[in-house]
Amino acid sequence: MSFQLILNNLAKHIHLTPGEQDTFITYLQTRKVKRKQFLLTDGDICKHSAFVTAGCLRGYTVDKAGIEHVLSFAPPDWWIADMYSLLSQKPGILNIEALEDTEILLLSKANQEKLYQQIPKFEHFFRILTENSLVASQQRLIDGLSLTAEERYNIFCKRYPTLIDHLPQKQIASYIGVTPEFFSRMRSEMVRKKF
Predict the structure, then answer these.
(1) Are residues 135 and 151 in the same domain?
(2) Domain that includes residue 17, residue range
(3) Exposure pattern of 35-71 as b/e (b: 16+ CB <10 Å)?
(4) What is the spatial distance between Cα 94 and Cα 26, in angstroms, rounded to a whole number?
(5) What digits encode the pLDDT tens for the residues 42-68?
(6) Whether pTM exceeds 0.85
């Protein structure tokens, strides 16, 4: 497996020497996750951050009525974890499932801590990831309270441009907080308005 995608991801925020890159790679674990297989389920303690190199994962919760609420997608070049559980090491509430056969690189919390000691730049990198995750979560909450479904869909399209025609409509509907039926009508209306 090539590690170039993850190294490019790191390079957006920190500069690593070839030796530091090699050290980082030794801490990664490669894994293939089959379609519909879970990387994490509700109640598990999250012990890894996952970086997607191929395929797509989704993070979601299930409410008391059994309705799924998609919180995030992770296509290639995205990180995903149950942040609450990873940071607190308490049981989480997130299910992380493969939407298709997916290849990931796992970095355990223990190895992340070792990286902080050996290569302090990684504290900077993961602080940026955590801050970005916090900002995105807050923005989604505000958007859910103040924007129309159509506006939320447009934001989804900007955030995940590679997934628009790739995901089942019910997954996108769940992400923007509407029923699949409402989503289907809304998209038809949006197409009609364009012409």
Answers:
(1) no
(2) 4-139
(3) eeeebbeeebebebbbbbbebbbbbbeeeeeeeeebb
(4) 28
(5) 999 999 999 999 999 999 999 999 999
(6) yes
The answer to whether residues 74 and 155 belong to one domain is no
DSSP sequence for the chain: ---HHHHHHHHTT----HHHHHHHHHTEEEEEE-TT-EEE-TTPPP-EEEEEEES-EEEEEE-TTS-EEEEEEE-TT-EE--HHHHHH-S----EEEESSSEEEEEEEHHHHHHHHHH-THHHHHHHHHHHHHHHHHHHHHHHHHHS-HHHHHHHHHHH-GGGTTTS-HHHHHHHHTS-HHHHHHHHHHHHHHH-
- The torsion of the CA quartet 118, 21, 32, 37, rounded to 10 degrees, works out to 50
78 close to 33: Cβ distance less than 8 angstroms: no
pLDDT in tens, 131-166: 999 999 999 999 999 999 999 999 999 999 989 888
In a shared domain, residues 60 and 151: no
Answer yes or no: is pLDDT of 194 > 90: no
**Are residues 106 and 158 part of one domain?**
no
Place of tokens 């949006």: 190
